[in-house]
Structures are given as structure tokens and as C-alpha cells.
Amino acid sequence: MSSAATTTISEPPAVVDDRLSQVQRRRRRFAQGSGLLLLLVLLFTESMWPSETFLHESLEMLGYALILVCVAGRTWCALYIGGRKKKVLVDQGPYSVSRNPLYLFSLIGGLGIGLQAGNLVTGLALALFVFALFSVVIAQEETFLKGRFPEEFAAYAALVPRWGPRFSNWHSDLELTVQPRLVLVTFRDALWFLLAIPLLEGIEMMQEAGWLPVLLHLP
Fold this sequence. Notes:
The chain contains eight helices and two strands; from the N terminus they run H-H-E-H-H-H-H-H-H-E. The chain is mainly α and about 220 residues long.
């Protein structure tokens, strides 16, 4: 890695570190609760475009593709940042074009999940929700990074956008030290996005069979 990516501090700011961990835990709990609420809403909403129509099927296929991009992208990011997040300032690979590529791929996955409902409103609403949720987390993480790598992070933030991507910034070392266990953990967690496919297909089937009442049609 470059000099900015390999600078470490032996004594981390413990208070900020603990606050960051708390924010991450609250984010996970909030996301889980919001996911259950979204599922409840989706049980009784349906696309205004019937299934089997071109537009409905196109949105679903786009959703499939975006979810796969999310899973692959998050796993790719883990190759660079797995086990390093609080130890070094990673500025290689996907982190050279976006300061938060993991969250960017999560946003793409959120949009993909929403499009599985066959309408644009759910997709855009879920993407905005993911954006707002991770924006809060990013603010806390950047406070942490500013405290641990003050000069390096200032230079990094001036060059690389918070969300991006700015592809002209791309650079990466020819070799990486990878921690397979952490990459597999990230891949496993990303697989939860794939569960949206059979789940929403099941909801659609139950609505068509008349087992679930449809109270709202969305474009």
C-alpha cells in the first residue's frame, strides 16, 4: 500500500472507538427493525404493473443484477479492508475511488431489493433509506478516522469522494495480503441480500393466489 494506507497509530482513541462500535450496533438493530417493517408493508402492496408484463419483469431482472453486484462488490471490498479497518487508512482498490465502497454497494443492493417488488417507488425509497442510514454511520466513522489519521485522512478526503465513485483516482498495489476468514464473513453477510429474491417472489405468488390482500398499488 501507499504511505497513507500503511500509517498506523499504536494507541487508538479508545473513547471514539467505543462510540463507533455503539453506532454500528445501533445501526444493525435499526436496520433489522426497519427491514421487518418494510416486509410488513410489502405484504399488502403490489406493483401497478402486473407480473409477466415487460416493465414489471424488467425491474425484477434489474433488481437481480443489482443484488449480485452488491454481493460481489462487498466481497471485493473485503479483500482490501478485511481486518484493517481500524488499523490503517486503506486507500487502494475500491477505496481509491470511493471512501465508502462497502456502503455504496449496500446502497446498490438496497435499490435492487426494492426493485424486486416490481415497482420504482419501493426501489427508490429503499435506496434513500440505505443512503440516510449509512450517512449517519459514515459521519461517525470519519470522526474516528480524523482522530486516528489526522493528516492522512485530510489528504485522502480531499482526493476521494465520500460516495463517489471517481474512477480517475483508481490505483492498487499488485499484491494484497488477504485474510480469508474476514472475506468469507463479509460474503456470508452479503448473501442476506439474496434472500430478498425468493422472499418477494413468495409474496407476489401469495398475492396472486388471493392469500394476501393488496391495499396499495405502486408505480
